[in-house]
Amino acid sequence: MSDPDPDPDRERPGPDSDDPLALVVPKEQVDPILAALREAGTYDDERRLVEHDGDRIAIPVTEPPNGETRSEAPGGELVRQPDPEYRARGLDDLLRERGWADEAVAQVPNSWAVLGTVVLISLDSGRGADGEGPFTADQEREIGEALLDLHGGADTVLAREGVSGETREPSVRVIAGEGDTETVHTEHGIDYGMDLARVMFSPGNKAERERMGAVVDPGERVFDMFAGIGYFTLPMAAAGARVTATEINPEAFRYLLKNAVNNGVQDRIAAYRADCRDVETTADRVVMGYYDAHEYLDAALDALEPGGVVHLHEAVPDALLWDRPIEHLEAAAGDAGREVAILDRRRVKTHSEGVYHVVLDARVE
């Protein structure tokens, strides 16, 4: 006579249940057992590993190890999962479902930006069939369609190919969806309206946009020399600063005005469609959000009150951090007969291989 089951109410695998199987194993044995299940092809990667109790982990499997149907299986206990935790499907999974081989999937970027109803992704440009780039036109379309499946609120996917010229005009291609490049992106309570085929927007500057809204004081006078559609102007004005904003690109300037009204901060923004060097103003803080901003430091220092703060953006090779931006600032201050005290230095994001987008904060006496 066999011993009675000490836990008669526990979930058993049972042949008649449709719930998926999992192998419950001690935590310290997860890695070798998981490797063995992968090698045997019985690991179910559509579900997550979950904690079964304080000392054991449930590894999802597609079938019982070694064909066992009993509750006790080699390496652990076989159970059914009535409420399994499924992994969210990613871009790689969706492309594999479309027949992509692992080698091709490995070439696809693992990051992109969702801006309102538009997905923006860099594909290194070109067409693979001509040997000029990693993807064919059909592959680009399939990447775009997979991204639309992944982000249900989006309706257009754009391949980003860079920004050029003094007016920072973007180059993009529609690779999937409706092709509507105009959208509204909401970030930290600010609505940024834009047409991504006409104006640039850098998703990687998100933390810096939030920071600029936090560093200003109500009533502070700010000169935003390269305002664009209001990247820094809008959060600073929303925080109560009075911002003089200049922008030379007519499309970006149009969105700057529109965004000021839509965010209810138009009364705190004086906007000029002009070269920032041609606008006379006085400021407690100057924001220079442009990679070649050091060329405009003389105008920035002319506007900056003694004791004011300048935020100098620059794209700098790793070998020149932080010497080059500091040299630019100190040289301009020396020419103006002023002194500089460095307050902070930050890497905003990677600009290109070995080159970083950085910001230097300094007080100028």
Give structural notes:
With 365 residues, the protein is of the alpha/beta class. The protein is 23% helix and 32% strand. The chain folds into three domains: 21-80; 91-180, Met-10+ protein-like domains (GMP Synthetase, Chain A, domain 3, 2-Layer Sandwich), CATH 3.30.300; 201-364, Rossmann fold, CATH 3.40.50.150. The protein contains nine helices and 18 strands. The strands form four sheets. It has a seven-stranded mixed sheet. The chain has a five-stranded antiparallel sheet with strand order 2-3-1-5-4, covered by helices on one side. It has a four-stranded mixed sheet with strand order 6-7-8-9.
Short recap of the structure:
It contains 9 helices and 18 strands.
Outline the secondary-structure elements.
Layout: E1 21-26, H1 30-40, E2 50-53, E3 56-61, E4 72-73, E5 76-80, H2 91-97, H3 102-105, E6 113-115, E7 118-122, H4 137-150, E8 156-164, E9 169-177, E10 182-187, E11 190-195, H5 206-215, E12 221-224, H6 233-238, E13 242-246, H7 250-262, E14 269-272, E15 283-288, H8 297-303, E16 304-317, H9 323-335, E17 340-352, E18 355-364
Parallel strand pairs: 7-8, 12-13, 12-15, 13-14, 15-16
Antiparallel strand pairs: 1-3, 1-5, 2-3, 4-5, 6-7, 8-9, 10-11, 16-18, 17-18
Which CATH first-tier class of the largest domain would you pick?
Alpha Beta
Number of separate strands = 18
Q: Could you say how many structural domains there are in total? A: 3
Unreliable stretches (pLDDT < 50, length at least 5) are 1-16, 125-131
* Strand numbers in spatial order across the main sheet: 14-13-12-15-16-18-17
CATH hierarchy: architecture of the largest domain = 3-Layer(aba) Sandwich
Q: Helix content range of the residues, please?
A: 10-25%
- Taken as a percent bin, the fraction of beta residues is 25-35%
The CATH superfamily name of the largest domain is Vaccinia Virus protein VP39
- Alpha plus pi helix count: 9
Rounded mean pLDDT is: 89
Shape: elongated
Q: What characterizes the major β-sheet?
A: 7 strands, mixed
Q: Report how far apart the termini are.
A: 93 Å
Helical/strand content category: alpha/beta
CATH topology of the largest domain: Rossmann fold
